[in-house]
Amino acid sequence: MRQSASFIPTLRETPQDAEIKSHQLLLRAGYIRQLASGIYTFLPLGIRVLQKIEKIVREEMDRIGAVELLMPALNPAELWQESGRWETYGPDLMRLKDRHERDFLLGPTHEEVITKLVRDEVKSYKKLPLILYQIQTKFRDEKRPRFGLLRGREFVMKDAYSFHADRESLDEVYDKMYEAYTRIFTRLGLNFRAVIADSGAIGGKGTHEFMVLSEVGEDTIAYSDGSDYAANIEMAEAAAAYEKPDEEERPLEKRFTGDRKTIEEVAAFLQVSPERCIKSLLFTVDGHYVLALVRGDHEVNDVKLKNFFDAQVVELAGEQAVKEVLKCPVGNLGPVAMKNEQPVKVVADHAVKYIVNGCTGANEEGYHFVNVNPERDFQGVEYADIRFIKEGDPSPDGKGTIRFTKGMEVGHIFKLGTRYSDAMKAVFLDENGKERPMIMGCYGIGISRLVSAIAEQTSDEKGLVWPKSVAPFDIHLILINERDEKQKQMAEELYDFLRREGFEVLYDDRKERPGVKFADSDLIGIPVRLTVGNKAAEDLVEIKLRKSGEMWETERSRVFAQLKEIFERI
């Protein structure tokens, strides 16, 4: 492609609203442009990177027997009402009406559509297992779109769905998908980790997220420094071994604590450590009230709380609800002498059980209990792992200690089970002629998000540094002086020759100063730069590797051999 005839609007200055490196560089290098908040146009360079990623994804999906199709982005509300997600998905759903006032939505994901399709077409176990996938634009009404392509309202996604007659078949395909995703992200040149995750609004049991390690990631990954264990912090099991202090239990006593509400304030006033305090938070879990208890130095994990109750919606109750239900203000709640008139279930983290002579709210403004002993003073309390794991805790697999790092999600695989087939009556006849629900899996990759993820990990202070697998071109051919006939002739001949030999070449034939061309070349980030300049008269060209900065001159007759060797090793 001749750069003079292409559309690559590079920028010298960084746009003010671009917060992270990948967003800044993709804008400056002319890969994307923003149309509205969270909505982007892919320019010629950007679409080439996107298509390279799609090609790798297609190759690995085809390798495991997945079959491609394309489903509508516009979905009738009836399908989502049938699955129950019209009400539960939340405000991220892009809803609209047609001219007849019928409800529709722009699909953020396609479990409902694919379930209807397979339900209507597949009736026998002989047609299972079946793996279908698509690469398509999705829509989510993000409350706060940010970081360019990493959190947008319109994005490109690969979503795959599998249908099975039994769990063993689902497990087999899940493992194949796990391996395929590992190959995909490896081929893309990413530093990533597969972590245990929560299924969120998709539903189902058993899921892994594929996280690209990055300081700008919005997810915290808990990993072991002594094994390959890794999990999203929401799902990491707190496997700390607790021991009771060896001291005698003292009588329960109510103490005046005034307007001190926080754990830190109460602990300091009562001269106890936060570990001896019990933090009490009121939640609504699918419309029912739950008082969650954790140790003062721990935090309630609402995802674990949701999973413990197998719930759809978990929300922290507001101050007004606390006063109405428990008859006291936030900051004085506790599981002892509760004054609730409405039913309130109490669930405590395992660590709470090991507190001796602790303190907790007395359910009365200005007062707390001291010398609280859970097994003596609590009634009707269930114990479960409901806290966030902490850095320094022992790893759940018993190997090493937990450390934290940041990551951005680029892929997610789920074992859905019969979540959608039950709701939407997607059934088949087994070998005995008995009707059974199909067992499903779901597997997503954020294609457009990967453009930013790769850019974030592989760029440097000069610009983008694309891996050869996804670079928009293999070679950036630069003509220094278009008025020099010898240079122009050599550059034109090299351009034609390299394309015939199968290389993808961006030919900078613009009437620009050399400094501008070199700066743009570094910014755009193509793996190899080939420069035709003053030494064209000596039949010499310059080769530079974008990633390492290595540079040398070579005779034109040796260019092809050297380029072939370069692309075999980079």
Overall description:
The chain is α+β, with helices and mostly antiparallel strands and 570 residues long. The protein folds into 3 domains: 45-236 and 403-456, Bira Bifunctional Protein, Domain 2 (BirA Bifunctional Protein, domain 2); 253-384, YbaK/aminoacyl-tRNA synthetase-associated domain (YbaK protein, Alpha-Beta Complex), CATH 3.90.960.10; 475-569, Rossmann fold (3-Layer(aba) Sandwich), CATH 3.40.50.800. It contains 15 helices and 29 strands. The strands form 7 sheets. Strands 3, 7, 8, 9, 10, 11, 12, 21 and 24 form a 9-stranded mixed beta sheet that branches. It has a 5-stranded mixed beta sheet with strand order 16-14-15-17-20. A 5-stranded mixed beta sheet has the order 26-25-27-28-29, with helices on both faces. α1 (21-28) packs across α12 (447-458), α2 packs antiparallel against α6 and α2 (44-63) crosses α12. The longest helix has 21 residues, at 167-187. The chain is globular, with a radius of gyration of 29 Å. The protein starts with 20 loop residues before the first helix and ends with a helix. Keywords: Aminoacyl-tRNA synthetase, ATP-binding, Cytoplasm, Ligase, Nucleotide-binding, Protein biosynthesis. Belongs to the class-II aminoacyl-tRNA synthetase family. ProS type 1 subfamily. Pfam families: HGTP_anticodon, tRNA-synt_2b, tRNA_edit. This is Proline--tRNA ligase. Its EC number is 6.1.1.15.
